[in-house]
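Narrative summary of target 7.
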Amino acid sequence: MSAVVLRRPVLKRTSSFWLLGYAFLMLFVGTTIPTPLYRVYQEELQFSSGVLTLIFAIYVLFLIPSLLVFGQISDRIGRRAVILLGFGFGALGAAIFAGAGSLASLFVARALQGLSTGVVAGAGTAAMLELEPHGNRPRGAFAVSVANSSGAALGPLFGGFLAEYGPWPTRLPFVIYLLLMLPIAALAFMPETLSQRRPFALELRLPAVPAEIRTQFAFASAVSFTVWAAAGLFLTLAPGYVKLLLGLGNLAIGGAFVSVMLFGSAGAQIFSRKLSDRVAITIGLVLLPIGLSSLALANPLHSAALLGAGALVVGAGHGFGYLGAMVLVNRLAPVARRAEVASGFYIMSYLGVAVPVIAVGFGAQILGLLIAVAMFAAVVSVFALALLGISTRLAAPASQATS
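Modeled conformation, tokenized:
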């Protein structure tokens, strides 16, 4: 009798590339679905705005270590297994959100989302670059960027619309999301893109920055920290701010308000690809105080138009500033240490998402949400203007050296 060898079917590289792009899109849809629902959880479970920001921040607390650990693991054992593990964490987090009935379950679900993002980010990005059908790595990186920003923008619309107009407001969005995740299971059949594997090792090492670029790195990281602080405010407290300011309890409108900011960021990132990193950073730092001022002025003027305009301008400021800072870091980092330097930059960016927002969340308990947001807008605007001045000084020696 002849032996029959059963081989696991393998997807074509082109199919795997687009399927992984879809998976990235869904990953970030999932991370922002809860944004318009946080206000519902607050009302049902009776917790403060300070606790709300802690729920948001635990995402970052779990994301950063997983980003540092699992990126290097995928360089050892392969991309496919790590990617599937990451999406497994994401599906589990969504399932816990769907059945969440306590504060503890919200913390666990959000922690799993952070873990999922950290696990998938490094391995998934590397796989996208390696799977790009024509070997065009910049095109692969751009596909990841578009999937990330588009998914993050679609999540609040998706969650807010289903919660407002469907049954089970805190459950239905996650049930449908889990159904949309089913095609991702086919990534089990994607080709393994890592050609040389190394023995498994688990290590957590903080990234180090070469001395010769530390000043520029600190500046770029400060820019990213600042623009992400503004974005983090929208991702946590914005729906509650809209309800309090305009008296609109509609969850779909709250989600749309957040999406306006995220779509503004995505559009700015696409446009800023044609600009130098310095020009993009300058535009971002100019736009951020303008947008935050509109957000703060919307309160005394009770203006929905100012609120929407502020969201769009803050989003554009975030997009220009973040991408410009990221390009600057990648340009300056030595090739042999580019991944390590990028990891340090991402850590500072994610800290910008979490730390200032926790402060404004607890400040809202003392001063009220409207005043806390106004003070936050003022502080972040001062930071942006200070960085604008620093940017001019840092650019001056470079221009003198080339003249």
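The chain has 14 helices and no strands.
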